[in-house]
């Protein structure tokens, strides 16, 4: 769940992006007048989406001003496919771009990927209740007790914990953790989660819950 700023002079596009990203649990702040963006507290946002072609202050100008203040991921949203514009945008500090018209899944996947990368780069460790994750050493603890997780078990646990409260299917977990889809291996997710639970229960913790017919979540 993240705070996302979207700037576009097309209200229909703003509403569409809000509808897509809010379903993933994100809060979306929409701004139609680019000149009003300069009054925003950019530190509040985890990710920023900017249209390039806007009256008044365009996306390139906004990117330069925003990048000078924060290091949050910036995505350009543009109808342009000219390579020179893409190179210019990335050179100003943008992290990625989406070409209009864009697909729902593509938008969601790009946003989630940049949020994951940004979060992992900024954090060395994080706590959820009694459970602590050390991202740098890939270790997990309950209070002072190290949980003997395998590499895959740790990656699954970290992924669910970083998105705690959000429900993921076996397919989503497999693709996000291992990087590709393979239905024949989905049973490995079930086995990994069974093993993770067994290791946590030794320390009276049951963080992974099953949502029947849907998937799993870190509670």
TrEMBL record:
Keywords: DNA-binding, Transcription, Transcription regulation. GO terms for biological process: regulation of DNA-templated transcription. One of its GO terms (cellular component) is protein-DNA complex. It comes from the Bacteria. InterPro entries: CheY-like_superfamily, OmpR/PhoB-type_DNA-bd, Sig_transdc_resp-reg_C-effctor, Sig_transdc_resp-reg_receiver, WalR-like, WH-like_DNA-bd_sf. Gene3D superfamilies: 3.40.50.2300, 6.10.250.690, Winged helix-like DNA-binding domain superfamily/Winged helix DNA-binding domain. The keyword Ubl conjugation does not apply. One of its GO terms (molecular function) is transcription cis-regulatory region binding. PANTHER family: REGULATOR OF RPOS, RESPONSE REGULATOR SAER. May play the central regulatory role in sporulation. It may be an element of the effector pathway responsible for the activation of sporulation genes in response to nutritional stress. Spo0A may act in concert with spo0H (a sigma factor) to control the expression of some genes that are critical to the sporulation process. This is Stage 0 sporulation protein A homolog.
């Amino acid at each position: 769940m993240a705070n996302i700023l979207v700037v576009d002079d097309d209200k229909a596009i703003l509403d569409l992006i809000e509808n897509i990203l809010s379903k993933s649990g994100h809060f979306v702040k929409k701004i139609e007048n680019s000149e009003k963006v300069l009054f925003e507290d950019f530190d509040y946002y985890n990710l920023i989406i900017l249209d390039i072609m806007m009256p008044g202050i365009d996306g390139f100008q906004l990117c330069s001003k925003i990048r000078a203040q924060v290091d949050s991921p910036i995505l350009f949203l543009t109808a342009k496919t000219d390579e020179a514009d893409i190179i210019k945008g990335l050179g100003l500090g943008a992290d990625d771009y989406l070409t209009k018209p864009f697909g729902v899944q593509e938008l969601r996947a790009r946003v989630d990927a940049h949020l994951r990368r940004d979060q992992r780069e900024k954090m060395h460790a994080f706590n959820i209740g009694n459970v602590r994750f050390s991202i740098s050493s890939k270790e997990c603890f309950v209070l002072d007790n190290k949980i003997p997780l395998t590499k895959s078990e740790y990656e699954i646990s970290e992924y669910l914990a970083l998105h705690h409260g959000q429900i993921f299917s076996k397919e989503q977990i497999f693709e996000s953790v291992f990087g590709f889809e393979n239905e024949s291996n989905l049973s490995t997710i079930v086995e990994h989660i069974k093993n993770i639970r067994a290791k946590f229960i030794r320390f009276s913790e049951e963080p992974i819950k099953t949502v029947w017919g849907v998937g799993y979540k870190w509670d």
